Amino acid sequence: MPFTPAHIRRAVCTLTAAVLLTGCVTTDAGPAVPPTPRAQDELLRTVERTLVDRCLGDRGLTLARRPETPEADHRLQAALFGTGPRELSLTLATGHTVTAHTDGCLATARQTLYGDQKRWFRAQVTVDNLRAEAHHRMKDDPAHRAALARWNRCAGPPGRPRPERPEPAVVARCDTESGLAALRARLEPTELAKVRALRGGQLTTYQQLRTRALRRAAELSAPLTAQEGNNAS
Q1: Each residue's pLDDT tens digit, 89-113
Q2: In terms of pTM, does the model score above 0.90?
Q3: Most buried residue among 64, 88, 109, 131 by CB atoms closer than 10 A?
Q4: Is 114 helix (H, G, I), strand (E, B) or coil?
């Protein structure tokens, strides 16, 4: 399951341009990070977007408008995501492989924030897929296998193979009728706890690098906040 340019571009392009620092205070020790996870996530996204914009601007590019030609779009994609073979790769317990470049403006921004983009890549991909790994482990449960078989029979038209992507209404109905949704809800907490224990090292790395990135983001955002205040006055 590689990160395609379209996937990451959608994520980057939906970021807001304003810096949200609700609840932050500045102390003699330096700018403080926001107190809530939601505000922290917003700070990281906003500063990452700012770093990406600056990097692209240095190359005469921008995310603010759609490229006018395929050649211009290719140039933007290459500058944003990098080129050549993908240097970062992690195969998950689910069997999916996630890859990414170490060059490009997005990678440069993450290197600035997290200090070690390779360690951050492995930790982030692992943490982002904890629930998927827990669901993958459920497949070994006999009750889950039976419920999944019922779901496949429910979602497949009589006498024909099940569609690769059934209609949402069919999915919802079969989730209920097969008992699969209820079973997954019961099994998930236990399996997720097991996965978190297995991936404890990556969870620790994730938290350490995220804490580092939050401090760095607060430092980088302080001049922007001061500039906005001066412009407002």
Answers
A1: 999 999 999 999 999 999 999 999 9
A2: no
A3: 109
A4: helix
